[in-house]
Amino acid sequence: MCIKNGLNLFAILVVTLLISTSVQAKQFKLLVFSKTVGFHHTSVNQAINALTKMSEKHHFDMDWHEDANIFNQKDLAQYDVVMFLLTTGDILNQSQQTAFEQFIESGKGFVGVHSASDTEYDWPWYGKLVGRQFVIHPVIQTAELSVIDRTFPGLELLPDVSLWTDEWYQYGPELSTNLNYILSVDESTYAPQADWGRVKGQGMGEFHPIAWYQEIHGGRAFYTGLGHLPAVYENSAFVEHLFGGIYWAYSGKGLRE
Q1: Cβ atoms 212, 182 nearer than 8 A
Q2: Which residue segment(s) compose the domain that 40 sits in?
Q3: Which of 31, 53, 98, 125 is most buried, by the most CB atoms less than 10 A from its CB?
Q4: For residue 85, which of 124, 136, 154, 34 has the smallest C-alpha distance?
Q5: How far, CA to CA in Å, does 219 sit from each of 107, 109, 112?
Q6: What's the total number of domains in the chain?
């Protein structure tokens, strides 16, 4: 009788543990990678603080790394989305690039923030993934930011047109034909000209995209050019915009008709 009661108690404990584990399981796991081989943004720490709070609010796991050795097939397998947060320069070697290619091609997600487009210029596969690459930027200025596609998730707090202060990147040509544009900046509302000697910029003209998404290489990729200034990571509209990209890159869900 005691043995039977003990077995019943053990079974109850196992079931309780399984239910508890199921209830507490996180939605997905995000790898935030912020290695730089070039300019280093001082906003990285504020961004990590914002992403940590976001992960608590939206119930997902997050790891932050600056060591590229995490880019191997075994370690990447635990993640659903990889974010290049304010990365610059050549940050992965050949074997690490191959592991990341396999990760995306397995159907997983990528999120690029701001200078993710100032990264890995000599890796054509990555150029297609990020969509466009950075050319130059003028001084930080306030300009009119416009929502051009409300079908994408995370834009609920952004009005159709708003004043936004950021470092407005000028981008090169499309490197992928799959890009769906979300946000744009009106060049008539700021001075887009820049001269760095070795490179000059006059802006992108009538249409200047700032954020986009695409299905590419068998996976999903989202990029936003916003996010230079530390203070923007305390802006709830930007944080929701960023989560919308993470959520879509993870799930492929959230698009509206």
Answers
A1: yes
A2: 27-134+172-185+205-251
A3: 31
A4: 34
A5: 4, 6, 14
A6: 1
Query: Is the residue at 225 inside a domain?
Result: yes
Q: How confident is the model at residue 124 (pLDDT cuts 50, 70, 90)?
A: very high
Residues whose CB is less than 8 angstroms from the CB of residue 6 and which lie 6 or more positions away in sequence, other chains included: none
Side chain identity, residue 195: D
User: Does residue 24 have a pLDDT over 90?
Assistant: no
Task: Please report how the helices 44-58 and 236-251 are oriented relative to each other, as an axis angle in degrees rounded to 10.
Answer: 60
Let me know how long the chain is. 257
For residue 254, pLDDT beyond 60: yes
For the whole model, what pTM was predicted?
Answer: 0.91
Q: Which amino acid is at 75?
A: D
In the block, tokens 């979300």 appear at 182
Token pair belonging to 140:
């930080």
Nearest to 216 by CA among 240, 170, 180: 180
Largest Cα span, the chain: 88
Find, among 127, 36, 142, the residue nearest to 90 by Cα.
Answer: 36
Categorise residue 135: left if φ over 0, alpha if ψ from -120 to 50, beta otherwise: alpha
d(CA 227, CA 127): 20
CA distance 199 to 240: 34
Q: What CATH number should be reported for the domain holding residue 239?
A: 3.40.50.880
